Amino acid sequence: MTAPSIVILTGAGISAESGLGTFRDEGGLWAQHRIEDVATPEGFARNPQLVVDFYNTRRIQAAEARPNAAHHALSRLQTEHAGPVTLVTQNVDDLHERGGSVDVIHMHGALNSALCSDCDHRWSAPLEMSVGQSCPNCDQPTARPDIVWFGEIPYQMERIERALLDADIFVAIGTSGNVYPAAGFVQMARHVGAKTIEMNLDPGENVGLFDDIRSGKASDTVPTWVAELLAG
């Protein structure tokens, strides 16, 4: 019997247990700024210093965070499962990689990467970027955080869609279910007959599209599910 093909989508909920704030956290970093000021191309054009400072703070916070049991469990799944495991994240931290996962698709970009808005070259971002930083490829002062802002197209969508069309199991972990296109992945998976599983502290807005709903902390639900799956 062929091992099932698994596609996993993770969101802010899996990183929250490592101490990284989400959009919904009162008093957190996001609560101090309007999304249109720090997470849009227009906001960057208006006030690049504000945006660079915002992502510098996020980058420092992410560097200080540590992967939790859910990150480690997904790494174990990638290593021990006989079939393909495609790991897609909406998160811009590198906790999956530091937890041992490989080939993670960061559909919304990555804090530890810089992007040239002129030639599209990418390179490792310093812990603190500066406004007007030069691109090492074209030498233009056009560096920006390599983050997919609202109004921009998420990365690697074709690869994600191919994986979803081949999926036997689709799992959403710590996602709100209201940010598209990621919120529509469960529908694509259901269309091809995949079993759909949600693991969340609170039900996502698209919870009705999942066959199996597991409530609780990701650090509890994810290791339990991985152990069940690997045990057969």
SSE layout:
Blueprint: E1 6-10, H1 12-16, H2 35-38, H3 41-46, H4 48-64, H5 69-80, E2 85-89, H6 95-98, E3 105-106, E4 109-116, E5 122-124, E6 143-147, H7 157-165, E7 169-173, H8 185-191, E8 195-200, E9 212-215, H9 218-231
Parallel strand pairs: 1-2, 1-7, 2-3, 7-8, 8-9
Antiparallel strand pairs: 4-5, 4-6
Helix pairs in contact: 5-9
Compute the separation of the termini in Å: 12 Å
Q: In this structure, how is the largest beta sheet organized?
A: 6 strands, parallel
How many helices? The count is 9
Listing every helix as H and every strand as E from the N terminus to the C terminus, the arrangement reads EHHHHHEHEEEEHEHEEH
Poorly predicted sequence stretches spanning 5 or more consecutive residues: none
Oligomer: single chain
User: What is the total tally of β strands?
Assistant: 9
Q: Helicity range of the residues?
A: 25-40%
Strand content bin: 15-25%
- Radius of gyration, in Å, reads 18 Å
Mean pLDDT, to the nearest integer, reads: 93
* Helix/strand/pairing category: alpha/beta
- Strand order across the largest sheet: 3-2-1-7-8-9
* Overall 3D shape: elongated
How would you characterize the overall build of this protein?
This protein is of the alpha/beta class. The chain has 9 helices and 9 strands. The protein has a 6-stranded parallel beta sheet, with helices on both faces. A 3-stranded antiparallel beta sheet has the order 5-4-6, with helices on one face. Helix 5 packs parallel to helix 9. The longest helix has 17 residues, at 48-64. It is elongated. The mean pLDDT is 93.
